[in-house]
Amino acid sequence: MHVASTTSSIEARSLSKNYGSQTAIKDLSFSVSKGEVVGFLGPNGAGKTTTMRILAGLLPATSGEAYVAGHAVARDPAAAKRNIGYMPEHNPLPEDMRVAEYLRFRARLKEVPRREIRRRVGEAMELCDLHRKAARKIIGALSKGFRQRVGIADAILGHPDVTILDEPTIGLDPHQIILMRKLIDRLRERTTMILSSHILAEVEMSCDRVLILSHGRLVAEGTHAALRDEFIRNTRYRAEILGSESDVRTEIEAVSPDVQIVSRRTDPADGFVTFELETPARANLSEPLLARLHTAPSLRVRAFERVNPRLEDIFLAATQRSWEIETADEANGRPHAAPAKTR
Amino acid sequence: MKHLPTLFRHELRVLLVAPSTYVAGVLALFIMGFFYFYVVIETAVREQETPPSELFFSTFWIPVLLIVPMLTMRSIAEERRLGTLQTLMTTPVTAAEVVTSKFLAAYTFYIVLWACAGAYPLIAVTILGQETAGHVLLEPGPLFGGYAFVCLTGTLFVAVGIFSSSLTRSQLVAGMLSFSVIFLLIVGVLAVKAVGSNVEALPLLSDEGLGYIQIFEHFEDFTRGVIDTRPVVYYLSGTVLVLALSTLVVESRA
How crowded is residue B205: how many other Cβ atoms within 10 Å of its Cβ? Predict the structure, then answer.
């Protein structure tokens, strides 16, 4: 008999899910340690929601096993559900209930002790900034941002070991996204969290680690820095320079012949050109490049920076690589390669 | 079943705020009132062999076809459409608790509506006078028999409504489905018995088999004061079976 790891809050072992002949996820294995905030990334149809639904006990896996807080979700769903707070995508809520009334109802269902209900509901509402006017409001009359907060308050009511938030920032305006990010930060330390999002900057800022899914497979996992090292081979620099492009090219080639100008944009107000430079290696040439450009008599440099690759770039590189491997494997009739695992 | 009281209170509240509950209530009470008025008039102008309560309860199927779909069509279908069934199933509640709570809440309203109809004989007696109409309109045998019949058959009808609601996301489809199934249960068996009484190839289609599931035959027994255990077993086992099927549907398609 398999026993779940004691240090992992979530453990997925070779999870697969088929809908008829269609494979939603295939042989998915990962684990999430206690207190970690993990981001689920993937294009539409990658299997993020399916995986989250399996972890929440809403959907049985075709094969494999999922553990939440040491309980097998399929074999002991009640125990697993007692340790999970789940906010589904689009966060369905009853339109005709008041916020506090709904949360009290959910607290009773989550088996919060009767004497604790008032305190726990108050605590969840306070954490999610619902304790003022919103508490008495009918849910149907709330804005999207407040509805999301009600969903999160509901997810954390039972003090779950694991909180799963499926697209918590979907449909929110930038101000509400900032508030949601602060809320996720406040929940750190209290619970292990998995969240999926289409807004990669959101995941980058909120999560300790990222799992990238593509076509139902885990194609990469690790911290942002580790994934950057794994998937991004080149280094980019941005410089704002007044001078001719040929002079710039001469100077950068003097530092390293590998440095290329990949884009340029002129500021019509003062004639300064923003150059994007790229080296195919991971070497840091910031200092020699800046020194060379700065001392060149024909050039005036007013800004220079090394551009850190965004999660978007990593995401695109990882999904692209998985697609290429998959296509090559299918052509050669080989099984698929294991995901890149970087810590 | 430890979440049942919480879920039951919630479901009663949902029914109390749903417009369809009030539409069903007003329509059903209006129709039942009309039938009762007609029965009282008929009893006054003509000598009747059948007691007025039995005459009134013999039209039970018309309010049932109105009340049950309207009370039950929303129950699971709407939760499925909104997605709240999904959030409900992420808590430690079981599908059986969800289905049972919805059934009990709808059944409670069903009984409340029929109980309201109990005011009609009282109103009639108050207007016509205790001495003139009391002994006819408040004859206890057919009245209690009729109510026992309505309470018993109601379990199966409401269970069918809940089951229909579990099969779809659309309240309209759920309502039409439960209307059709209840119609077939009440009138269909009668029609098969009338048309195909010679068909004895299948045990269910034999006279005895059809009699066992013939709701009007049960009605006559109940209003005459004959309480047979066979219909009781039929309705209660049918209710349990249909609710079990609803539980399976909710479990597999939350």
Answer: 15
